[in-house]
Every structure is written in structure tokens, then in C-alpha cells.
Amino acid sequence: MPKAPRPSSDAAGHLAIFHPVCDAFALLLQPHAEVVLHDLATETVAYIANNFSRRALGEPSLLQEIDFRPEDRMIGPYEKVNWDGRRIKSISAVLRSPEGRPVGVLCINMDVSHIHAAIEMLSTFSGVATDQGKPTALFKDDWHERINEYVSGWTRRHGVAIADMTRMQKQQLVRELAQDGAFSGKHAAAYISRVLQMGRATVYNYLRDSGN
């Protein structure tokens, strides 16, 4: 990665020890991260690694935009918008001298626009328009689907996973499934036994005990 030109001012010289840190972060996260080093003595940009914000060395830092206070150690994470509209997630660390005096601010700007684009794409692929619903002809007699939804809702309401259900909980669920007509489908008992991870004979025993 080509390095940004180093500032020539003496005021920024004391921050030169942080340049490799800036380069390391930018190299590790390339091409998605920019690292900007601000000199608090002059309140200007002192160093930039992987510059995609089009900022220039020596321009005003404008640290008031991130609500900088000298007593801070860390600022953020916070969001910004790049010049080209990309969404940026940033965090800033206040750099101090051995005496504890704040001398600089190191800002890591992460381009997260590609992540948001991927989320939107996955959401589009996985979603179904609410006005479409399920095709009636396909799901009208799909008792598998109805059983799946029933069991999923039951376990969610009771806060338990199928693998962790007790014998009494399985008995209760089988009884409620029977009361709602889940066993009317052909081979429904076999399917429910597989869903609840138990033998078919056990399901029939639970049904008999419940009086169904």
C-alpha cells in the first residue's frame, strides 16, 4: 500500500511514531478502512493511510464534529457519510504524551456500505411480499407446514428447544397438537415423532394417555 506523504511541519513531528500504527490498521482492513491522524497542537490533519475521504494533510481537523473533549480516551463508534454517499462507521482514540497530555486523535473510518448492500440483498432474497402470502393451492393440505409452525410457536412461547424438552413437555405438546387436529393427516404421527425426536410408539402412548 502506498503511504501518504508525511507532513513537513515540526508540530506534527512528534506524532510520527504513530504513522506505522495507522499504516497497520489500514493494511489489515484494506480496502475498507481509512486511518486519519489529527495533530491537536495545530488541530490539523497530520497523516492519512488509505485515503478515501479525499481529505488533505494540513487541513482543519474539525474535531468538534465528533464532540472531542481532551479528557476523552475513546470516541465512538459513530456514523458518518463519505463524500460519495458511502456510509462510514468510525471510532477515534485520543493519543497522549508520556505525561498524559492529549497530543493527537487517531480516527479509523470503516466503509460499511458494502455490508449494508449485502444485508439489503439478502433481505430481498429471503423475504416474501406480504400481500402474496402462501400459495393456497400449495399449502391448503400441507399439514407438514402447519405442524412445523405449531411446534415452532409452542417452543418459542415456552422458551425451550425441542432437544431440551422434558417428557412432560412433550406429552403436553402432543396433547395440544391432537386437540388442534394435527394427527388427521396421513402419517402425521410418524412425522410428529421425527420432529419431536422420539419414537412413534411413544407418540401413540402419549395420545392414549391423553384420551385421544
TrEMBL record:
InterPro entries noted in UniProt: DauR-like (IPR039446), DauR-like_HTH (IPR039445), YheO (IPR013559)
Segments passing through the bilayer: none
Residue ranges constituting the YheO-like domain according to the UniProt record: 16-118
Ranges where the Transcriptional regulator DauR-like HTH domain occurs: 147-208
Matching Pfam families: HTH_22, PAS_6
Record-given protein name: Putative transcriptional regulator YheO
Organism: Aquamicrobium lusatiense
